[in-house]
Structure formats: C-alpha cells, structure tokens
Fold this sequence. Notes:
The chain is α/β, with parallel strands linked by helices. The protein contains 23 helices and 7 strands. Strands 3-2-1-4-5 form a 5-stranded parallel β-sheet, sandwiched between helices. Strands 6-7 form a two-stranded parallel ribbon. The longest helix is centred in the middle third of the chain and has 23 residues, at 273-295.
Amino acid sequence: xxxxxxxxxxxxxxxxKRDLRTCDHRPLAEAAAAGPVLPLYVVEPxxxxxxxxxxxxxxxxxxxxxxxxxxxxELGAPLIVRVGDVVAxxxxxxxxxxxxxxxxxxETGNLWTFQRDRAVxxxxxxxxxAFQEFNQTGVIRGRQARDRWAAHHARFIAAPLVPEPRRLxxxxxxxxxxxxxxxxxLGLPDDGCVSPQCGTRATALxxxxxxxxxxxxxxxxxxxxxxxxxxxxxxxxxxxxxxxxSVREIIQRLYAARQSLxxxxxxxxxxxxxxxDSLIARLHWRGHFMQKLESEPELEIRSxxxxxxxxxxxxxxxxxxxxxxxxxxxxxxxVDACMRSLIATGWLNFRMRAMLQxxxxxxxxxxxxxxxxxxxxxxxxxxxGIHWPQVQMQSGQTGINTPRIYNPVKQGHDQDPEGVFTRRxxxxxxxxxxxxLQTPWFATGADRGGYPAPIVDVEAAARAAKxxxxxxxxxxxxREAALEVFQKHGSRKRRFENDNPGKPASRRKIAPKxxxxxxxxFGGPDAPPDLT
Length: 532
Ligand SMILES: Cc1cc2nc3c(=O)[nH]c(=O)nc-3n(C[C@H](O)[C@H](O)[C@H](O)COP(=O)(O)OP(=O)(O)OC[C@H]3O[C@@H](n4cnc5c(N)ncnc54)[C@H](O)[C@@H]3O)c2cc1C
C-alpha cells in the first residue's frame, strides 16, 4: 500500500480529530507506552461540505494541525494526513499493515460526527480492532440525568494532566503526506473572514499569560461590550475548539494563578481574583452545555421542549429576512454592526451572539436551526456542544430558561455608547450623530449613505414575539414537559426553571418571566454583566 513500506507487528493508530495536541492527550500517551504509534488525521470531505461548517473552521483547524505535525515529528512519529472517508482510510491501512488497536478521544460533535463515530465502532468490531475512546472534556457519554454531574465534572478537571510522551516510536515505513491541504485545495469557498484567530497551543498559552498579566483586569465589566470584549475576554474558545489545549490544562493553570494572586500583596495583583473566578466558572459551563448535546445529539435539529418543537415553522434558505440578517443588512444598526464584525473576524462576545440569535428568532420569527447554522459557519470557534444548546436557549426553546428578548437599540446604546463600534462596521452611518445612530429611521431627511430601512419595527416585533411565547407557555402540559427537560439537562446548582448560569441562589425565581426589553427606555432592566 502507498505510504507503508513494510508491515509492522502491532500497529496502534492514534486518531486525532478535534484534540490536536500532544500534552494531556491520553490516547497518545497510552499508545506511546505500549509500542510503535501511527498518528493519523483524516480530512473528511463529506464533513467539510456540511451546512454548519465553513472555510474559517478549516483555517483554524489547519493552523493547529501544522503545529501538531511539527511536534509529533520532533517526538519521533510523523503525523499521517489522509483525505477521504475515515472508515475507508482505516480499511486501507488495516489491509496494508493490520491495525491492532485504535485510540481516540470521545468527541461531542454534530450529528454527522456522531454517526461517523458509530460507523468507526462498527468497522472496528467487524475487523476485530480494539477501539478505545477516552474522555477529554469531563462530559459523560450516555448520561440521561443531571444528578451529581457537577461533582463528576469537577473530579475530572482536578485529575492530574497526562504528560506529553518523552519520545514516540514510529511505525516502520510510515510516510507523511507532504502537505496539509489549504481551504482552497479542499474547495471550501472563501467566507469573508479577513482576520481569523489562530487555533494553536502556542496562541492559547500566550492568551492565558497575557490575560493573567493584566489583559483580564477588566474582564467582568468589559465582556459585555463588543468594543471591549475582544480584548478583555480570554479568546481561548478557538484553541479549545481545535483541541490544541485541553480545558483541564487551562483550568488548572488558572487555579494555580488564583492561588498566587491570593498570596500576592494587593498592589502586585495584575488581575482581580474575581476575574479568574468568572473565567473558571465559564470554562465549567463549557462542560455543562456540552453535556446537553452529548446526552441528546438530536438537539441539533429538535427543540428541547416538545411544545416549542410542535410550534416550529420552516424557514427557507433564501428567505429575505434570513438573508438580510445573515449579511448585516437588516437596517437595525447595532444588529448589522455585530453581524458584519462577526463575518470579518470570526469572533463575537457572548452577549452579542445571544442578541443576534434572539433577534433572528424573536423579532424575525426565523427557525432557530436555520439561523443557528448560519452562526455556526461564522464562529471560528464553532463547538457544537455549546452552540446548539445556546442557540436554542437564546431562541426560547428550552422551557427551563428565562427567555430574553434583547432590544438591539438599547443594547447599542448600552454597549456602544459613543457609537465607535457601530460606525466602524456600518460605515454608511459614519456621519450620523450619536443620538440617532441606533435609530436612523427617526432621522428624517438625514443622509443614510445607502443604509437600508429597517426590515422590522423593533418594538412591535418584540411585542408580537412575547405574545406568541406567552401563549405557548400556557399550553396544557407545558410545565410537566419542562420538568422532564430540567431532569435531563438542568443544572442542579439552580432551581427548576432557571438554568441561567451565574445567578446567585437568593435571586433565583421559581417562575420564569419573559425578560422582554420591550420598551425603548434605554435605562431599562438588563442582565448584570456577569450573567453573560
Ligand atoms: C448563540 C450562541 C452560540 C455560541 N456558540 C459557541 C460556539 O460555537 N463555540 C464556543 O466556544 N462558544 C459559543 N458560545 C459561547 C460564548 O459566546 C463563547 O464561548 C465566547 O464568546 C468565546 O470567547 P472567549 O473564549 O473569549 O470567552 P470567555 O468569556 O473568555 O470564556 C472562556 C471560555 O468559557 C466557555 N464559555 C464562555 N461562555 C460560555 C457560555 N455561555 N456557555 C458555555 N461555555 C462558555 C468557552 O469555552 C470560552 O472559550 C455561544 C454563545 C451563544 C449565545
């Protein structure tokens, strides 16, 4: 077979997917301890054609892959990169040299990778190959209820890191593919991302250190605005999505830093301890959200709550509202600024992601899955296990969270008071005065530089959405079905019907309210910054 000179006695294949690292990588360490290792990465063309996947994902994945290939070569076992269907690739290698053992990490991916992993299991069973999968996130495969989940997750995160193997023994004759294909070579259309973040371990370690050295000082206050969020947030999501660094390694580094901070005299503290606590909490939510999709992979396409699923109506891919929203042409300046910034950079802070999704679902009445797919393609940190539960939560589909209908005009005023971000991404309004920047439709006769008229009346659309939601929540059996959702997916740190992480126990409500910022009173109620 091309690529292998001679059969080797015991072939162990370590299959890399979204775990592109050598540190805290148990499959690699276990294989290294047992004998020669064949590290394999398969570029799967069928995956890269899916509707939730895009060129920017490959760009960040490729950056981590290049780094991984270099490190594996230094350790002694070069990475084998193949393009094709995984089962077909494994079948070929098996026919040539006989695979004794396949080792990989469990992946909480989309429905496609879930089915792909099943096919690999079936292939291994047929060929009598021992297939071992290891946990890397602390989510539990097959878990159907949340009791005692947090304790399990905490134990996983606190366990010692798996050291990088000191040396790897290569499989005799295994040859590397000369190049790792570019997005262009894979035929992935350019998606307009002009400044994608790097998904490497080196980048991630640099981000942690700069956060600790002072970048994170204003984390809690700055994270809510797209202006400050880009620099105050950790920006670790991209490297977590490629798996270039493990979530456990990051959290353990932060706990160590927290201890040093506590011991340091106040003037020498580069970031407040509360900033580290907030970041650590968010990294735990990562597992909390991923567990939802791991327990119920169909949540990518089906609403959490059956009443919401029954009420869904389809959105065509060429729906003009969808196109206007996805291209940043809604005529609502802050919505368009956020969308255009996301298209160009591949990143957006949490609150603005939530606002974009909520606007699509509530104001425009679009199906959450169709808009969620668009956002998935735009996020260079696309992580299905966080993404789909968040998309549903921000679209009011869970039945156990307080629905939040963001008012984009209010958000524009609150998060971009001088209009710097809005003017940067909506240059048509560069000359507009700050008092009409978020509501250009009130500025009769003003020059809008070709900027479109709003596609909805923000206030009326929110009111209609609230009425629809209220009616659905009064449906017979709604509460009972919500209890079932809670049993399976709700955090045990909260009481039923408030699964919104970060809210102190004393302020939790028993009955969920629809948090509709319906009026254009700009000082109205909003989540405190730490709820993002
Ligand atoms: C509709 C929607 C879709 C989202 N899709 C994704 C996605 O595909 N991939 C992704 O990584 N995040 C997603 N998020 C969560 C969040 O917005 C991003 O994790 C965060 O903005 C990434 O930037 P950061 O690494 O600087 O975050 P930080 O604020 O510095 O947080 C550190 C890490 O904590 C985790 N985290 C932070 N907020 C959340 C949260 N609310 N829920 C779960 N984990 C969290 C992430 O791993 C993040 O990298 C989504 C949020 C919404 C509202």
